[in-house]
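Hi, here's the filled form for the chain we discussed.

Project: internal
Contact: R.S.
Residues: 1878
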Amino acid sequence: MVGEDGDLEFDPQFHGYDSNMDDSRDNKKNRFSNTMVFMEEYLNNVLNDELPFHNEEKNKLTYEVVSLARHLIYFGFYSFFELLRLTRTLLGIIDCRPNPGYAGVLFHDDGSGKNVKRSIHGMGQIMSTMVLNRKQSIFGGAGARGAGAGNALEGQRGSKDSIENMDLTVMDTKLKILEILQFILNVRLDYRISFLLSVFKKEFVDVYPMADADATTNLEHAATINLQHIGEQAEAMFGVGKGNSILEVDDEGGRMFLRVLIHLTMHDYPPLVSGALQLLFRHFSQRQEVLHTFKQVQLLITSQDVENYKLIKADLDRLRTLVEKSELWVEKKSSGGGDGKKDKKDKKEKGEGASEDAPPKKEKLEKGNENYQKVKEILERLNKMCSTGVWKKQQRLLKNMGAHKVMLDLLQVSYDQSDLKMLEIIRYTHLFLQKFCTGNQENQALLHKNLNLFLNPGLLEAETVQHIFSNNYQLCSEISESVLQHFIHCLATHGRHVQYLNFLHTIIKAEGKYVKKCQDMIMTELTNSGEDVVVFYNDKASFNVMLDLMAESREGVGESSPLRYHISLVELLAACAEGKNVYTEIKCTSLLPLEDVVRVVTHEDCITEVKVAYVNFVNHCYVDTEVEMKEIYTSNHIWKLFEDFTVDMARVCNQREKRLTDPILEKYIINVVFDTIHSFFSSPFSENSTSLQTHHTIVTQLLQSSVRLLDCPWLQQQHRGQVETCIKTLAMTAKSRSIALPLDLESQISCMLSSSALNSLSRSNPNYKSSSRSSRPIAPSNPWDYKNIIEKLQDIINTLEERLKPLVNAELSVLVDVLHQPELLFLEGTDARQRCESGGFISKLIQHTKALMNAEEKLCIKVLRTLQEMLIRTLDFDEKGISLRKVLLQNYLFPNKKNTPKNDLSELGASGVEQERDWAAVAAVQCRLDREGGTKLFTDLVMSSKNDKIFQECIQLAICLLEGGNTEIQNSFYKLMMGDNKSEKFFKVLHDRMKEAQTDIKATVSVNVGEMTHKANEKELETVLPVAVGHPMLAPGQSIAPAVCPPALPVPAAAEQREVEAEVGPAVTIMKPILRFLQLLCENHNQDLQNFLRCQNNKTNYNLVCETLQFLDIMCGSTTGGLGLLGLYINESNVHLITQTLETLTEYCQGPCQENQTCIVTHESNGIDIITALILNDISPLCRYRMEMVLQLKDNASKLLLALMESRHDSENAERILFNLRPRELVEVIKKAYHQESEYEGEDVSPREVGHNIYILAQQLARHNKMLQNLLKPQKNSKEGEEGISSMLNLNNRPLSQMLKSTAPAVVVEQDPLEYYDLLTSQIEIVRDDRSMEQIVFPVHPICEFLTEESKIRVFNTTEQDEQGSKVTNFFEQTSFLHGEMEWQKKLRSMPVLSWFSGRMSLWGTISFNLAVFINLIIAFFYPYASGQVGAIDDNLLLMLFWILTGLSVLCLFFQRYGLQPLTIALILRSIYHVGIGNTLILLGSLNLINKVVFVVSFVGNNGTFIMGYKAMVMDVEFIYHLAYVLTSTLGLFVHELFYSILLFDLIYREETLFNVIKSVTRNGRSILLTALLALILVYLFSIVGFLCLKDDFIMEVDPLLHLAAPQQNEASQDFIKSCSADGVSCTTETEALTVTEEEEAPTSERACDTLLMCIVTVLNHGLRNGGGVGDVLRKPSKNEPLFPARVVFDLLFYFIVIIIVLNLIFGVIIDTFADLRSEKQKKEEILKTTCFICGLERDKFDNKTVSFEEHIKLEHNIWNYLYFIVLVREKNKTDYTGPESYVAHMIKNNNLDWFPRMQAMSLVVTDGDGEQNEMRMLQDKLVSTMKVVLTLTQQLMELKEQMTEQRKRRQRMGFVDVQGGGSAPSAAGGNHQIYKS
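And the returned structure, exactly as it came back:
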């Protein structure tokens, strides 16, 4: 309440709760104090009872006590805080958790308790201080203490209140408690509102002290102070948690309250469940509630307002009591029985009426009169209020105070029809209600709810209903047929009153839009109603009656005259046909023919009113029509009318200066006549009519009269425009039909047109209006005036909205979490908890929702919305919202954990930031809801719901359940439908909705298009005229024209465009969710459901597939013809709907569902043509400002056409699509889309992508159309020579053109769109389940461009064949690796440095090898490098070499080959010369190391080694090899130079040939090793023989080591020793050996086989190395020795067995392997060259076929295309798959490779099958014709048979007769003869 003179208004029920506690109340309160004490004590006892509800008698008492409490509360005996205390007790009673610790500590009486009994204003102050200072709540730790004590008793009290306990008294008690809770929440809401207002007032008074300061200075200042502060206080008002809020209903920060409500929801008593749910939603929308209510607050600022308020309040209170006691003063009819019904409407009335004793008769009469007087006065006063002052404000005030309710009650009072006073009162009441709802949509809606009260024959009622519907488009479009029928019925039975017609007239047009539905309904009703209602005076007799009537009405038509009715009726008919409504136009013209109209209008007695009505009728029903009315252009009637017009015009212009006194005539001429003339001559149909030439004199007369009228000075400005347009039209017609006009007339017209053009220019000048406006001085305003305060209040509301909006959503989102895990509210182990965990709560909620459907729709909608949120979370709020959400979650669900573990919160989505939606989790929730009956719920609701809102929410729920393509839900829906034969009913609902939407669109769309084309024409006219006619005149002021004209036109064009787009009606809006639902049903190509939507196998089938197509057809307006006009039908408001329709149709067909494809293609509507038109046309006005929508449309349309042809082997569908598709246009569209890319960057739809889809469509169609095929081939220059020349020219031209800065280079560089798309489109062939092959054309996924050439080469060359000789298996295994590599390469591109290094990997490899070679060369030449001495090379030689090499390198650089190596050598030599060998080596070594590290980095970069994980890294041999290389380089640099020699082995890694040579050894390593092992065994055996028998022959010659004393040698050895010691290696053994003296000459031979080991070593060492085996080194024996033969055998055996056989075996294996390898390599190359990688067919299979082998492997079975397709399937969202894609995805998932074609290709099948197919076709045709012949033959045979039987019967009869009469045979023959003739 604001200030001393402010007041505030709420719902009267508890207006200002605490403010009523004045003294008298206190006295009464004292009287009741004992009762109150008893009550509280009793309730506390119940609370402490262990089983509160177990004693039945006591339950009744409890119920009574709770009821008493409720009454005491309602009558305001409690202050707010006492109320809260009571509530806690009540909650404790119904809580299912034991808390015996409560009673003692419930209320500590701090000081604040005493302040409570102040007024509500004071209360606001207290609250603000309390909330803002955040004092510890006055209910300290009660909750905590209670909880602590609670666990002890849990065991025995577990069944304290079991849900199954179904005692009605108990249930009612609980209901009562819920009522009290509702009441308390209301009071709390009031508190919050008053608190906000008191804060506002305080701020306001601070900013604007009462003195009238200058307003302007303070204004900005004010806004800043107020809003921030108030916003903070508003937020603080909702504390959260135990210690924070004094407004929480219980002690646990709302937790207990929630627990109670959840528990109550699980009861089986519907009213209780509903009540609990209401409170639950209310609890989670506190902020929303405050916001909403605060917006409704109406401030009373001036004292006048307060006066009015008090007056109204007093009046209404008195009126209320009078109405309630109406039985006592209203005179009744004598029969009392009939009125019982009416009185039942108000229970209060009845109760009070009965309790008072009826006073004696006489008193009653006097009292009655007095009461009549009182009521009448009150009504007069209220009427006055409604029509004075700011009436909108007064209407709102009266609405807030519930005045209309009282009035409606008053109308229901029963009275005697002859009671005049009462009739007057009723009249006043109606007047009041009419004023109450005039122009106020909210109030209209309020009264509309009670529409049935007014549907009786009274005329007053008719007027009131007219006011309720007046100019309210929504109400008019939703009007029910029964209302119309009521009024038509009244016309027929209660006399022809104009008021009824007026109502009908009102609902035809509202808010400037025609309600086509109403027009049609009225027309139908009128035509059905017959002569009583539709009164025309057409025939002779009645025509005279009409003339008489007109004669009577010369002075003006009487209100009740039949003529007035007739005029109204004709006007109504005209209105019905307005706005080009085909249906009504035809009906009207049949009711009132043109000649009758002309006869009436041209009659001399005709009065102007009739003329107005009739000519208007002609205009709307004959001239301005949708279809051409032939007779108007062929007959003479209309020209007679025009002649009559000229006469009337002359009458108006009779005296040029003086205005005529007849305003009706003037209106007739200016509005009606000119409108008709304009319509007639600008109508598109009149252009073809020939009658214009014959009647050219009339045209001239009309023009003259119009110009004459324009000259009249009294003509008002707004009418001038109408006359001018009419003249314009006539002039244009005359010009176009070359009708000669008098010269003076022509000059007049041109003069007029040019001046009007100038005028319109100046008017459209944007500064024109503002200049005229700004001159008004600004009046100083008083800051305390109404406007300022209201503005400030509005600011505050806006601030609150801003601050609380995100919080509102956050608060509501917590409810969803509570519903997800209600068990967290209950203690472990209680049965309630178990029920929640097992899903009991959710299933109860779902069951109850169905019960809510009829009873409480709003609640039902809330529950449905919450269920949707549970399925698909949308957390869209900012930081504040997230923090509030966390606090609330902590408070309700995790109260005991101090800081909630992160995962719990994030699990509940507390993080709030929209992550990628986790579909697996969503699917789990979907299945859970489905198990609890979610699917059943939505099917039942859809079938039985009458309410549109509920229906919409159901469909949304279904969408949420199916979102993400959940197959389980699809199947459960299918089972449900198949189960109890529900499908017929369910599909009927959807079918009817579709039909309804179709009729709705038909109704609205034609109107719009008519208007739009009309406007478009006008616009053209406007643009043409000022320029054409106005040119000569504009010369002096030309600067005006260009400056103003261009901007003035396009802007309004867009605005008008938006204006014309009619808002789509609710019947159409609902289609989008329905279609989305149908789309989701078929998602993932669910074949069962696709077929089910087309045909349900019931008695009546609903083919939703056809309906959807029909719907698209009607949306795009093909019903009115003209596909070129698509742009007129598609606008911003319905483009999404069309897109959705296309998506749904696509989903019906994909998979492929052949029947649905056929069904769509063969449907009789223009569906297919529309879809092609959508692709080909620029959808004109829309594409200018919402291009992305148009692109989306084209994209979806192309996908739909692809789906229609998907997997079809016949060409029927393609041919049907090509039927209206011009190939050239299609190609143009593709090119256009390509070029649009640059214009629309950053849109969500890329034009190129759309172009690409259309290109793929074109590719698919091209198979069936040669022309299209040729158009799609990118143009290439035919002759190479020309190409060469042209490229040279281009080269020469480029610098030139760049110098000239022309656009030539762009043209040269520009890529052809078709080439671009061709590169990005691939095709493959796959094999389906039924072994049929199918070609797929698909877009290459962008990620595929990151596939590296090296990988391609590697895969292509190294893929091995499997047992069946197919490479596919191995290739498929590599695909995931390749895909991973693409992703890694893509990532790599985002790291430019790494990517640069990786790109040059081979370069680093070459450098490192070269460096290794150089280093080793230096070491070889110069090691060991003694100072000063350089081996064999001296300095001069070095220099000479340096220059030679430098020269060489320069030469080589010229030839661009091998230039760098000589140069490098030269530089190295130079550095050796300058720096010395050691330093050069260090330098080169460092370079080598750095380079190798770079190489490793790039290697890792290329292969993404680090991503793979450690195991893969260790397993990667290449990576290990390179690491070893780095290690060796490091050793060479830091340990010893000779380590570098190892690096030369890199050659093997680099050269594949060498690698193969080594492979020849390693490949058959096992056999070689085994053979070697055999050799070893043999050697061992020979050694044993040698040891045993030939010991003495083993005598070896040895050369002892001599010590050469050479100084150089010595130095070198010293050097070596130094280096050894430097390296830390001991060299002593060798030095000792060196120092052996020369003199000691050792013997030159020694024994070599004294031990077996010695023998083995000797045989191995010498035997294998010598060509002849071991015999070569043994002592050569004499032939005389006894062992000579044994020696020979021994030697020979060794030679043959070991040397010849075994060693050659080893060589043989190696050589053999080498040959194998070579032949394998050749075979591999052969296979690569001559066999298809994918299908394994060989080159010769393609000889003499239409497709060569090269084309086959490039186009049909390109290995990379298969890879790209697999990548596409993996990257694409699975809900967007086409049929083949989902098939392949399924196969890939199961690692099934049957979809790869093996040993077959389509081109081969086609060529073989082509002839066959042709033959088949011919055979088929023959068969068909034969069948026809057979059919006709059988028919003829049947006829013959019938004739024969007929004859036989006759014969028998005849014969019978003959026998009877003994007649002669010939007569019988004659009979036969006759029979034949017949």
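Let me know if anything looks off before we file it.
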